[in-house]
């Protein structure tokens, strides 16, 4: 079975075509700058890399370009679209309704649309992607895999905010948590690497990419996570503030004459390490290089970034009344020995953790990086959200097919 995985952002589409018989990616790519002059498609087929520079006005045009690339004689990996058996979509916000992945129907689309007000940056492009794919690949089954689903296991003591209860009832204001597909995958892999049942482990998964979140995964279930009502809460990110005193919002609005939209934009796009470095860098590689070279602004930004991660790890060790393993993942977590070393050696010694610095000196490896006698294990686990989406898609589509056969 071949599954096409689609992740539609506001101005980008990430995709992967997977052969599920052996779970390998046949082709993958990224289309950027949709609706902005200078659109660019980067496509990979095995080790071969291609780049197409052509303006793309909207998501439908973008998906059309991606599909034509997949069936192209030179760049493609399939003869025609009939080889695509199913499509799996990343959908960021599933609200309280979706605790697992679902086959997309008109009703499901309506529900995702109804949740769009909870994730105005993420859900509308996800819906556009689903609708465009349905038009371009009519009759091909489609599945939605939600970032929020894995965290639906949280208890009300973890997901409720201490604001008047009526706002939860009226607007569903609560912690949802995101990156659930990644936290789920990384926790499961951690158990496999440690050769222990997931149901017996207390794992802290540290997903730090451009967006960043931490989850406390107790016995296979998410019991708490740092992102909240939106993907803005929690850790410091590339351009997002993470936790701040909520009183700063109206204060700044009044002082600077900002609208709700403008302050939201500042907290999402101009804050995080970008804000801390006076608008210079949002990429952790640049900040890390600067910090190592002795630039005081980069050093401070890095210190604040790692300190926040360490505080959350401490909080989640408390929330689970212990921790067996801490797994680093995503762009920064997988690729930065410097970040992992600083977090672990500066702040986590009290947990009985010792880092094996030789093992830690590794990029995108899947391994244990703590010493043999470390009481808590520390790991690097490269995430694979696309594979989880494809697996869920395959499972749901096959289940439906089997059910159909019964009739
Ligand atoms: N070698 C590295 N050292 C530090 N940070 C890195 C390294 N490689 C990638 N990154 C960081 O990873 C980020 C991208 O992570 P990723 O998980 O792909 O993010 P997203 O999915 O949110 O776009 C980049 O912005 C960069 O800061
Ligand atoms: C939900 C979220 O923050 O996603 P990303 O890290 O892809 O921005
Ligand atoms: Mg990501």
Automatic annotation (TrEMBL):
It is found in: Cytoplasm. GO terms for molecular function: acetate kinase activity; ATP binding; magnesium ion binding. One of its GO terms (biological process) is acetyl-CoA biosynthetic process. It catalyses: acetate + ATP = acetyl phosphate + ADP. Mg(2+). Can also accept Mn(2+). Its EC number is 2.7.2.1. Mg(2+) binds at residues 7, 385. Keywords: ATP-binding, Cytoplasm, Kinase, Magnesium, Metal-binding, Nucleotide-binding, Transferase. Pathway: Metabolic intermediate biosynthesis; acetyl-CoA biosynthesis; acetyl-CoA from acetate: step 1/2. One of its GO terms (cellular component) is cytoplasm. Homodimer. PANTHER family: ACETATE KINASE, ACETATE KINASE-RELATED. This is Acetate kinase. It comes from Kosmotoga pacifica. The lineage of its organism: Bacteria, Thermotogati, Thermotogota, Thermotogae, Kosmotogales.
